[in-house]
Structures are given as C-alpha cells and as structure tokens.
Amino acid sequence: METPEYKVTDWAADAQPLVFASKDLGLTIYHTPGHTPDELAVWDQHERVLYVGDTLYEWAPILFSLSGNLEDYAATLHKLRGLVDGWNKDSTEDDRVVMACGHCTHNTPAAELLYEVESFFAKIRRGLVSPVDKGMSPGRKIPLVGFDREDGWFSFVGPKDLFDRFQGGIDLDV
Predict the structure, then answer these.
(1) Is residue 6 part of a domain?
(2) What is the C-alpha radius of gyration for the chain, rounded to an integer number of angstroms?
(3) Residue (of 78, 81, 85, 80) closest to 171 by Cα position
(4) Residue 3 to residues 6, 8, 56: CA-CA distances in angstroms?
(5) For residue range 84-136, what is the model confidence (pLDDT) as tens digits?
C-alpha cells in the first residue's frame, strides 16, 4: 500500500485542547512518548475516557520497537497516572475515568490499569521480573525478550538491548 505524502503544519502541544471552527470539542491532547517517539493520548472530559492508543493495553503483549524509549515510557506512565488521579479526585465511583487502548481494551478503570502497569514496569527496571527469551525479530534478526505478568493481564516484548539498558535505572515514585 502506498503511503500518502503529507507535511505537518501544526504540531500539537502537550495538554492542548482540540478546537474545530472556534469550538472547543472537550478533547485534550497529551504527549505520551515511549512506546513510540510520537505517541499521543486524547482525554475526552465529557465522556471521561482516556484514549491511549498502543501505549498500553490488556491481554496481549505491549510491543516495543527499536524506536521505543523505556525511560520515556516510564515517565509517560507516571504522567498519565497523575492526570487520572487528578481527574478522579472529586468523582464518584460511577464517574471514574476509564481507558480505551489499542487492540482489546475499552472501558477499563484507568487508575487501576495504570497503577498495575507502572508497578510491574518498575519491577522490570529493578530486575525483579525475569526476562523470557522471545526469539529473534523477523527480518532484522534482533534478539527479543518478554516480561510476562503471571495473570496474563499485560506483558511487554521488545529488543533485548532496549530492556538491558533500561534495567538498573532510577525508579519514579510508584
């Protein structure tokens, strides 16, 4: 499939409201790098849904490529958890923020998923989760490792070198 050519004329700023024809749509764009360098999340304040694309999701491995940055990813998880905690601060149980993510995740309680993913990722950083050999990537033949949560709720797979550089770093508060 041929990819169309385009030129970006207006880059979204972090925490930028989405406006169309001078009307605020109630959507806010957040920079969420790590999984990819240019990943974005969209907060729908009216529906109380945080859309995070492939930043994280449930029941399938979260895949990292060579362009992934695990330090940025850890910071993104921390940032999203802080945002969600703030949005949930004055909400009722029925009005808590939910997430819609890539693949198979929708209407998942955002605070719980973000806390669990961030905590598991911090354990990987500290070397408390053993890597699993995932073979070689197709084509470029890059060694891959995975980190599987025991209950299968989520897991990570990516280049071994990417995770080796990440382990032993400094944790953000979890």
Answers:
(1) no
(2) 17
(3) 78
(4) 9, 15, 26
(5) 999 999 888 888 999 998 878 788 999 999 999 999 999 999 999 999 999 99
Biggest CA-to-CA distance, the chain: 52
CA atoms within 13 A on the CB side of 33: 9
Instruction: Please indicate, yes or no, if residue 8 is contained in any of the structural domains.
Output: no
Distance CA 26, CA 98 (A): 16
- Number of other CB atoms surrounding residue 28 within 10 Å: 19
Per the CB < 8 A criterion, the answer to whether 47 and 91 are in contact is: no
Strands 49-53 and 98-101: parallel
Structure tokens at 58: 């449930």
How far apart are the C-alpha atoms of 38 and 80, rounded to whole Å?
16
Range of the domain at 64: 16-166
Q: How many residues does the chain have?
A: 174
Other C-beta atoms lying within 10 Å of the C-beta of residue 132? 12
132-159: pLDDT as tens digits: 999 998 877 899 999 999 999 999 999 9
Amino acid at 48: R
Domain count, the chain: 1
Residue 103 neighbours by CB distance under 10 Å: 14
